[in-house]
Structures are given as structure tokens and as C-alpha cells.
Structures
1.
Amino acid sequence: MLRPVNDSDFEFAYDFYMDSRVNPFMSFEVMSKGDFKDIWDELKGSSFFLAFDDQNKNLVGLCTLKKSVRRSAHVARLGSLVVNPSLQRQGIGKSFMKELFRFSLEKGIRRLDLMVEEDNVQAINFYKKLDFVEEGRLSHYFKRESSPQFVSEVLMAKFLSG
Ligand SMILES: CC(C)(COP(=O)(O)OP(=O)(O)OC[C@H]1O[C@@H](n2cnc3c(N)ncnc32)[C@H](O)[C@@H]1OP(=O)(O)O)[C@@H](O)C(=O)NCCC(=O)NCCS
């Protein structure tokens, strides 16, 4: 079930985002819980910061949506998507996105776009499976503290119909 994030999700969110299987693909480095509070506030400042619960009401996923305005008011940018690293590859991400598509349409969003690092093969496969298409690349856009390499971003988008 999709719902707005609340402050009781903080601990789970911290654990998910700092996990070594997830953090390399986020826009922030591994940090202390205290420092993560600023990131948390930033994420909460998105148009929508959403949680996905399983049938037992356990938090299993998170993402943000940043809605554009005026003549692009039908556009939103998907970000900080994560599925509980211990529960990946079980179809949760797909169910999460299906609900997100319905939610987006209800909010008048018809185009979803996102940026994904070109070395994030699992996420690129995931988005392709959901019919996102590549629209271009932003070269040397992303850099992890752990590596001297700059990484390019793949811009992907999906037009929602319904
Ligand atoms: C990307 C992510 C959200 C996918 O969530 P998930 O619950 O594992 O995905 P699903 O189980 O619903 O997978 C759906 C499809 O995506 C593709 N996919 C997912 N994980 C994959 C992997 N590790 N390798 C290859 N393809 C993969 C497959 O096509 C899969 O379908 P299949 O299992 O029938 O083959 C999850 O891997 C994640 O949180 N990754 C770390 C954070 C991240 O990269 N976020 C995206 C930032 S842009």
C-alpha cells in the first residue's frame, strides 16, 4: 500500500539508504544518523515522499516525486527509489511502481522521468521492464567519494495513459 512517509519511517529509511547495496545509487554518501536528518528533511520537501508497505504493514520501499509546474505540470521526476535490500528481486518494486503510476495519474501526472547511473544495471533493467525508455545521457554527472571516476546519468521517461 502506498502512503505518505511519516517520521516513524526514519530509522528504516536510514537503514535502507545506507545499505551497501543501495547507497552507491543514491545522490548522497553514507553518513551518520544525525547528518541524515538534513537529507530526510530534503526528501520530505519533495512534492511527494512516499512509502510502500507490504500486507503486514511493514515498510518495504520509498521514493520521492517532484512535480513540475505550469506548462509542465503534468511532469514529475521520480527519485530516491529504494526497495528493502533484503527483499529485492521479489516483485516488490514492480508492485510499488504500479501503485505509483495509479497515484500519479490521480494527481494529474502523465509523464514520469528519472535519472539513473549508467552503472546501475539492475535499476536500468527494472525501469525498462516497466516500459521506461532512454531519452538521453548526461555525461560525467555523478561522482562517488570512493572513486575518482565520473559516472554518466541515463535519462529515462514513461508516458502514463489511463
Ligand atoms: C531497482 C529496485 C528498486 C528494484 O526493486 P525490486 O523489488 O528488486 O524489483 P522487482 O523484483 O520488482 O523486479 C522487477 C524486474 O526488474 C528487473 N530487475 C530487478 N532487479 C534486477 C537485478 N538485480 N538484475 C537484473 N534485473 C533486475 C527484472 O527484469 C525484474 O523482473 P524479473 O524478476 O521478473 O526478471 C531495487 O533493486 C533497489 O532498491 N535497488 C537499489 C536502489 C536503486 O538502485 N534505486 C534506483 C535509483 S535510480
Note: The mean pLDDT is 98.
2.
Amino acid sequence: MRKVTKIIVHCTATREGQKVTAKDVDAWHKQRGWSGIGYHYLVHLDGTIEEGRPLEQIGAHTKGQNRNSIGVCYVGGLDKNGDPKDTRTEQQQDALLNLITDLKERFPGATVHGHREFSAKACPCFDAKSEYANVGNVRKSPLQSTTMQASGVAIASGAGTAISTVSGLDANAQYIVLVFAGLIVLAGLWIMRERLKKWANGDR
Ligand SMILES: [Zn+2]
């Protein structure tokens, strides 16, 4: 994967309510002589997200910034008269926030910007930089971390399986199984401790 330092938000510069598919954008961008759709994600009016150019490929969306950025584009950006307007539907706002949150988790150092910070354009017709300035900056507690939750569940289910097996065995076998279950729990706790250390170092 290439190095990603910026997530740059765009609009398709199409009128409010007009549907646009990634295929349409692909055709427009090919007309400009590019290899195809320049954005990595297209966020539709109903909040569905369509993938454009694969993330590991350099996009074509912001002059001078493509190498280390991801291009995210929502459909819209113009009012009925063709003037710049933040036309994002509620679903698009939610989808953009979720997508940017995910990307910030995947590329923790990346900052979020609007196309207009790099070019004399209105795109994306809202202040993306300040709207998303704090996304992903609040660290999750260990109990909210998905990897920590997964270890907890694994330990509990390991111990549970062992205990339910024990009841059907004779005394010696029960003893052996219980020791074994104890070892699984200890191993689980050790793994959790290692993950906790990693978490403390800032990597989830
Ligand atoms: Zn743009």
C-alpha cells in the first residue's frame, strides 16, 4: 500500500438530486484523457458508497496531491441553477462521516481536506477540513477496542467449552481438563496483556 497522508473530499459538481454512477464519472474522466475514474470512493445520494479507483492506485482528483492521498467524492455540489451548494443529503453526510472515520482508522496520520484548499474551486462546496477535523482523534478505551473485545470473547468461550466438557468425565479426566482450561485462560490473559501494551503504544 502506498503512503496516505491526506483524505481529500470532492463533489461531482452535478445538480442537486441528479444521480451519478461511478461509471458516469469513469466516462467523464476518460474523456479528460485519464485512465478512468480519478476518485477512490463515490458517495451516492442514498448514502451507498461505490468504489472507484482501487485504494492502492494513485488517484486523479487533486493536482499536486494525488500521490499520497485518497479521493472521496459525493454526488452533488450544485443547486438547481448550477451554483455551488452543499447539497449533501442526510444519508450522504452519515456515509461520508463513516467512510472518513474508517479511513482515519486505517491511515491514522492522514488529515482530511476539501479540494478547494488546493485549488481555486468551490469543490466540495462545504468546509471539509473543519467538519472532519476531530474525526478519529478521540482514542477508544481498551474495552471499546474491537481487538480487545475479540480476545475477551475468545477467552470466555474457551473456558466455557472446557467447563461444559468436564461434567461428562471421570475425576482424573476432569482434573486434567481443568488444568488445561486454566492454561487456556492464562494464555488468553497473556495475549490480552500484549494487546493492551500495543494499544497503549497507540496501535490498535
Ligand atoms: Zn474536487
Note: The first strand starts at residue 6 and ends at 11.
